[in-house]
Amino acid sequence: MRKKNYPWGRLLITLTCMTLLFSLVFMAEHLIAWGEIQQQQQKAKKEEKKTPEKTVKEMLQKEEEVLAGKPTGYRPKSLRDPFVSPYIKRTQQRRIIRPGIAGMLISEVELVGIIKKGGEYIAFFNGTDNLGYFLKANDELGDGRIREITIDMVIFEQRIEDPTAIRKTRQVIKRLDPLSGEK
């Protein structure tokens, strides 16, 4: 008896062999790529061991350059600080600091006492330089002037340097005996 020869049997064997061959080629490519990755990781580990010494030398060299006055790549003065209002910075640049009480801000001076001389009140202030100053109405300070002096308080007219502000001045009151919440 003879065996029947089916044509699809040979085709099946051929397809199986070809699939196996392609699978081996595909796996070989992945194995080669994996080996290259492993080699790169080993090189990186070797370089990491050399890096600290190199980095320290570079840091010392850059520090010497900075101390020598050579320009560096980082220039913080050329960039604006995002947390500082540009209006405040402009007003501080424009403000000319004058000597004595005329160069001090209203918030910096402390009201110590008020005296009456004739029909006029005179206020005694302690400045940031720990000196005492006697001021009358219309005397100037760094950011404003004294508008009025009464028996128990001094009323200032403070200039507002913010260009976006609607009002250009505001009233500031300093009392001898501050109310709760006031300074």
Summary tags:
22% strand, 183 residues, 4-stranded antiparallel β-sheet, SH3 type barrels, alpha+beta
Structure overview:
The chain is built from two helices and seven strands. By secondary structure, it is an alpha+beta fold. It has two domains: 9-74; 86-175, SH3 type barrels, CATH 2.30.30.830. It has a four-stranded antiparallel β-sheet with strand order 4-5-6-7, with no helix packed on it. It has a three-stranded antiparallel β-sheet with strand order 1-2-3, with no helix packed on it.
Instruction: State the share of residues found in helices, binned by percent.
Output: 25-40%
What is the CATH T-level topology of the largest domain?
SH3 type barrels
Order of helices and strands: HHEEEEEEE
Just name the CATH architecture of the largest domain: Roll
- Taken as a percent bin, the fraction of beta residues is 15-25%
The description of the largest β-sheet is: 4 strands, antiparallel
Overall structural domain count: 2
Low-confidence stretches: none
Output the number of helix runs. 2
